[in-house]
Fold:
Amino acid sequence: MKDLESKLRKLPLTAPSRDLDGRVLAQKPEGPMQPLPGRRGLPIWVTAAVALIMAIVGFGGGVLWRSEHRVVNGGHPPPVVVQVIYNSPNSRNPFDFTTASHFFPAGELEVTTRKLETRI
Amino acid sequence: MRTLDGALERIYLEYRQQLFTCAVAITRCPNRAEDAIQEAFYRLFRLNRKPKHLKAYVFRAVRNAAIDQVRRNPPLRDELNELIFDPGEGPRDTAAGKELKRRAAEALLTLSQDERETIVQHIYGNLTFREIVRVREAPLGTVVTWYRRGLKKLRNRLEERA
Structure:
């Protein structure tokens, strides 16, 4: 194996063209490189600390803001509207609930039921 | 001048021949191999940090650029003789030497891509196995196996044609 390796190593190699040096070395950027935006070498712990501080400030501010703008109710319950739907008295269909209904405003609702004559 | 630029320039000037040979083994076209080297150094000169193993990193960058060249334009010629080995007839170029060049190039083509690349990188790229591991991102055992298996095949080919 060593013999073959040394034989192969002795074989002359094709050289690259003469203008390759110029082509490659001309690619060197002129002057000091500007770091890419967002890659300024900022340590990750600094980024994490800033994010944590922003989160704490945001949360604290939100708590303060909510405490100042709390809605105070005067002890009144919110208005309630009750809609009672029952069988339409003018319809022959016992399941016609389309037209007959009443809205009742907020407050106590007293309900009385009356047995209707069955129409078949 | 940045220190990285200086280090890259030194590596280029020291290993230009090896980089070219390794790239030609992939592209099988000298012009495309040179394009790959140029493309790779365009990116290398714009690195922000110096890689840990710069020499292996440069070889890997050139290899990747050569593979990109092959993906864009598959190799036209199925030969390596005049591409890897100098066809020039110097005073030391005996008939036996020329014949060995031709047969070695033919035998190299019969190897798998991995075997051929490893042999070219080790023998003509002057890369150690550890460096080839970094260039190819393959385990050391695999690289050594590619090399030994390839060399064995190469020897058998050269002996059967002798």
User: Anything to note?
Assistant: The mean pLDDT of chain A is 75. The first helix of chain A runs from residue 2 to 10.
